[in-house]
Specification:
The chain is an alpha/beta fold. About 30% of the residues lie in helices and about 15% in strands. It is globular, with a radius of gyration of 21 Å.
Amino acid sequence: QVITLGTLAITTDFSKYEHGDYYLSSKDLYSVSSEKNVIIFVLDTFAQEFLESIVVDHPDVMDPLDGFTYYTNATCAYPTTAGSMPFILTGQYYKNDQLYKEHINEAYQNTDFYEQLNKAGYDISLYTGGAFVSESTKGTLIKNAANGSPVVSSYVGLEKAMLQFAAFRYFPHIAKQWVWLYTGMFDEIKETPDASPIHSEDNLKFYSGLKEEGLQVTSDRKSYSLIHLLGTHGPFLMNEDATAAEEGTATYWKTEGIACMRIIGEYVRQLKELGVYDDTMLVITADHGVGFRSFPIFLVKDFNSKGEVRESDAPVSHANLFASVMDALGLNTDQKYGISIYDIPEL
């Protein structure tokens, strides 16, 4: 192993793995504009079948969603976060024909979506994993990109995480249940060089900040925000009321899913309280469904849309997301960004 390690140290091109000079912080996570807002929630792994099951017993979770359309025939591009998030962010497919990082860089080069939003007067914030956003875009267009690279906050914590990671890799399958891990544990041992912490996808942290800080109108410039949260992805840590669950009491996806809808409901309530709900376009979706089934939730509220939640079986997908946003903003001239959900007839 020492010989192999030495050989790899000599032959590996470490430039391919260098960190950039920016990270995605939580700056202005709870800020909205007094003008127009486009807000996209990506709730990891939240499948349509989860929401349909939840609504049977808890129909009230849909009550706050005034003006929404629930698209019940929606699909995503990939069944995993690594494939789906870059697609949601760029509209560019990854065909596994190049290094992942090269694809990320090219994907942002091949779309002018963010440039056009910026020209239209929108501040752009992407609250997601830094690996899904190219360094060039972070440095030029993203409001919550901060200078510097996250560093290790606890080397003891890092050693524990690495040992657990190795144990999960090498333990017999029957024993893996005792060393199960979520790779998000590595995010918990990162710290940042300035006052803006790195964005966390933790549902509870987001909800805690939403309740304690509350949404605030802080900008006269229009705002575009994508907020990626853990959603119904394990580990399951929430009760139905979005409080921390005792270990082993949260049920597979269901309590987590109900809690996520409560969180969205609180966000919507605060938008209404601030008087900016009518001037906000909201999208609630997931990066993918459960397992290898590609059926994420997909709910959309256009500007000034009102009324009870209606259902549509129009065959839509994440491929229609950019077009739908630009259509709502009057920027999808000649369907430059594709076909919007508004132009797809129901079956």
